[in-house]
């Protein structure tokens, strides 16, 4: 008879895609992941979305890099190579690790010693582990000698974090999204969780089924609208006016929580004076929402025994993203909707480890745990731990670094796991800037659009190939475990960072992520009582955590905020400089984002068989009326043009879109949405307004 096949081994880990942080099990047989199953983690209770279940065969895709690559002498860096991988590949030759690391590290050292540390910059990644993020920022700060280190949090929730730190002293969520279970009212604004945080969306749906009131505010209709009690379909870019109008109603009708404000919040008089001008009747035309529903929702929110606010990129990816978040935070504070069960502020994190990478200091103006670079005492603490000096000057942010490269001020870069040649706004300029660098080192799984412009490409390990911790949207620090070996000569990312550090003169000897975690715990009080061994045993621990056997606090700020005096601050929002609004030449609003099947710049998901089969190509979505007016049937070819560029792709009908607004996902290199986007930044969060620019839309 047949011998039964040996059972698959199950390795417990975490999903590498979105910030929900679902726990999963890789079923491994013969060194390959055969299947992925959900495990009972605190954020997913066994559930997974299509990405977590089917998003892993990119590991063995034929494009996967297995050896280091070095640019062939004299092969020109041409931004056009970003969209033509085969042409890009012809400009590289394979090299040994010895040669590649020498070339990679020496090129950066020559710039550091010849021109100066400020001519260097590094982009780390929110898709790596906490340990990698921590070591990467330490390498840039102590090996390069600059704070020019950032990652895609700048393109994601930088505005939210800026406003949260200013208002309540902490950039993390005050409650997990699973707290919707205890909420009477759930306010979702500028987020599409059914697509971008699918498992979080299942908790919202269950809460509504149980009887919670759901309010959805967004310019674009979404699947959640079907179960919403109230829908505020406001005009793109009018977030501040809408939220200030809600504040106006609450304060003028005395619906706020005076006891909470008196005990814990400053700035009410200033806010009251500021929102006096925002009566719903005065701004209804501007908002595109009649006064009555604004008043209704404001009253519902204020009177709700427990209201939780969830927001996403619609709030933060704006040239006034910080103001958007300020207004949202003010709403919660004046009504006392924070610090209790079922209440809270929750910016839904986009990437699996954007919380952890930010906590670890992978940002230019802050050290680990958000100690400001220009705080001498904080710097001294970390300098003592590291035995190194840290530049007191805050570094440049993602978009600023690319702009500086374009001017020739930044001359060398080390990019680990990020893809600015797809993710930055105004790509024509960003790609030209990357091509202009004297020396670019890219560490990634594939020859990405960014790697196409590199001098040295270091083949990286993928998440299922490594051990490490990640921190999700809920502040849950979770253990990821290696399930399979990396292909070919690929090395662990942590080992590559250490090798690069040694080429730059640092005497690092970290051999395992547990050593790095132990050092992080010394640098970061937020990790108190969380150890590597504990995570191996428990898989997930929430920070802050009061004792080695305590579960961690899911709801924080019961009685004080982590500010100097324990009180929160209301900061009036707006008016701010508007985004690039439609005009006669560019009459449409272009908005960009993700879709369910594809992750960010598509590097992994477009090479995952099932995901690619479901959503194989770029489409631009339009309202049915706009399609009709253009004389195009769904699927017909469309050309979208902005002041930065043009892309062409097939159209898709989306009845959820208001007329005059088109949506383009940014995952597709053949129709790269960011060729079109506006590089202007929010003045405080330094985040570009990916959600809104003016466009022309034509058949073709
Ligand atoms: Fe992964 Fe997010 Fe999907 Fe969970 S919801 S399986 S973390 S992509």
Q: Which structural class is indicated by helix and strand composition?
A: alpha/beta
Level of helix content?
25-40%
Poorly predicted regions are none
Query: Ions, cofactors, ligands: which are bound?
Result: iron/sulfur cluster
- Beta-strand segment tally: 28
Largest sheet: 7 strands, mixed
Q: Write down the overall mean pLDDT.
A: 95
The oligomeric state is single chain
Radius of gyration: 24 Å
Number of distinct helices: 24
User: What's the arrangement of strands in the largest beta sheet?
Assistant: 5-4-18-17-16-6-7
Overall form: globular
In angstroms, what separates the terminal alpha carbons? 62 Å
Strand content: 15-25%
GO molecular function, one term: 4 iron, 4 sulfur cluster binding
Organism: Neoroseomonas lacus
Keywords: 4Fe-4S, Iron, Iron-sulfur, Metal-binding, Oxidoreductase, Repeat
Family: In the C-terminal section; belongs to the prokaryotic molybdopterin-containing oxidoreductase family.
Describe this structure in words.
- By secondary structure, the chain is an alpha/beta fold.
- The chain has a seven-stranded mixed beta sheet with strand order 5-4-18-17-16-6-7, with helices on both faces. The protein has a six-stranded mixed beta sheet with strand order 24-26-25-28-23-27.
- α5 packs parallel to α14.
- The termini are far apart.
- The model has no long low-confidence stretch (mean pLDDT 95).
- Bound molecules: iron/sulfur cluster (SF4).
- Iron/sulfur cluster is lined by residues 15, 17-18, 20-22, 44, 48-49, 51-52, 197-199.
- Iron/sulfur cluster binds at residues 15, 17-18, 20-22, 44, 48-49, 51-52, 197-199.
- GO terms for molecular function: 4 iron, 4 sulfur cluster binding; formate dehydrogenase (NAD+) activity; metal ion binding; molybdopterin cofactor binding; NADH dehydrogenase activity.
- This is Formate dehydrogenase subunit alpha.
- It comes from Neoroseomonas lacus.
- Residues 8-63 form the 4Fe-4S Mo/W bis-MGD-type domain.
């Amino acid at each position: 008879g047949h011998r039964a096949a040996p059972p698959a081994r199950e390795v417990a880990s975490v999903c590498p895609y979105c910030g929900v942080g679902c726990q999963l099990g890789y079923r491994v047989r013969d060194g390959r992941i055969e299947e992925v199953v959900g495990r009972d983690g605190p954020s997913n209770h066994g559930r997974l979305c299509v990405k977590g279940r089917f998003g892993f065969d990119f590991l063995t895709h034929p494009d996967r890099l297995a050896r280091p690559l070095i640019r062939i002498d004299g092969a020109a860096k041409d931004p056009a190579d970003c969209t033509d991988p085969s042409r890009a590949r012809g400009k590289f030759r394979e090299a040994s690790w010895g040669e590649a690391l020498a070339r990679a590290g020496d090129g950066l050292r020559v710039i550091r010693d010849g021109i100066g540390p400020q001519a260097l910059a590094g982009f780390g990644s929110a898709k790596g582990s906490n340990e990698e993020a921590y070591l990467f920022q330490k390498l840039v700060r102590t090996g390069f000698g600059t704070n020019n280190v950032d990652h895609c949090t700048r393109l994601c929730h930088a505005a939210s974090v800026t406003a949260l730190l200013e208002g309540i002293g902490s950039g993390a969520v005050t409650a997990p999204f699973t707290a919707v279970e205890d909420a009477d009212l759930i306010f979702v604004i500028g987020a599409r969780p059914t697509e971008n945080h699918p498992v979080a969306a299942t908790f919202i749906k269950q809460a509504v089924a149980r009887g919670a009131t759901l309010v959805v505010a967004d310019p674009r209709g979404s699947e959640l609208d079907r179960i919403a009690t109230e829908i505020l379909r406001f005009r793109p870019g009018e977030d501040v006016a809408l939220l200030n109008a809600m504040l106006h109603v609450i304060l003028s009708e005395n619906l706020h929580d005076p006891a909470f404000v008196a005990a814990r919040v400053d700035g009410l008089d200033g806010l009251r004076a500021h929102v006096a001008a925002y009566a719903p009747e005065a701004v209804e035309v501007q908002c595109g929402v009649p006064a009555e529903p604004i008043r209704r929702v404001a009253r519902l929110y204020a009177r709700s025994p427990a209201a939780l606010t969830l927001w996403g990129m619609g709030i933060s990816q704006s040239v006034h993203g910080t103001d958007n978040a300020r207004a949202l935070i003010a709403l919660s504070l004046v009504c006392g909707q924070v610090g209790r069960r079922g209440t809270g502020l929750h910016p839904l994190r986009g990437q699996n480890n954007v919380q952890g990478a930010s906590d670890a200091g992978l940002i230019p103006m802050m050290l680990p745990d958000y100690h400001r670079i220009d705080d001498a005492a904080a710097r001294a603490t970390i300098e003592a731990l590291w035995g190194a000096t840290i530049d007191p000057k805050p570094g440049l942010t993602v978009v600023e670094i690319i702009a500086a490269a374009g001017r020739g001020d930044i001359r060398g870069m080390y990019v680990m796991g990020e893809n600015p040649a797809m993710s930055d706004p105004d790509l024509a300029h960003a790609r030209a800037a990357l091509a202009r660098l004297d020396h670019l080192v890219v560490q990634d799984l594939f020859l990405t659009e960014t790697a196409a412009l590199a001098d040295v490409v270091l083949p990286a390990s993928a998440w299922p190939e490594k051990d490490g911790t990640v921190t999700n949207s809920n502040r849950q620090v979770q253990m990821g475990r290696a399930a399979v070996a990396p292909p070919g000569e690929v090395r662990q990312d942590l080992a590559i960072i250490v090798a690069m550090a040694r080429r730059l003169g640092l005497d690092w000897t970290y051999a395992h992520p547990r050593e790095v975690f132990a050092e992080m715990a010394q640098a970061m009080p937020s990790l108190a009582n969380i150890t590597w061994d504990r995570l191996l045993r428990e898989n997930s621990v929430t920070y802050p955590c009061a004792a080695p056997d305590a579960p961690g606090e899911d709801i924080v700020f019961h009685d004080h905020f982590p500010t100097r005096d324990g009180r929160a601050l209301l900061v009036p929002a707006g008016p701010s400089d508007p985004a690039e609004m439609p005009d006669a030449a560019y009459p449409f609003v272009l908005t960009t984002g993700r879709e369910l099947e594809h992750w960010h710049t598509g590097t992994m998901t477009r090479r995952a068989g099932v995901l690619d089969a479901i959503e194989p190509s770029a489409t631009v979505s339009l309202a049915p009326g706009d399609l009709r007016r253009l004389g195009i049937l769904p699927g017909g070819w469309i050309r979208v043009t902005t002041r930065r560029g043009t892309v062409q792709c097939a159209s898709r009908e989306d009845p959820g879109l208001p007329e005059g607004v088109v949506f383009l996902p940014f995952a597709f290199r053949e129709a790269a949405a960011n060729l079109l986007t506006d590089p202007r930044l929010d003045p405080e969060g330094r985040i570009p307004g990916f959600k809104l620019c003016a466009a022309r839309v034509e058949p073709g």
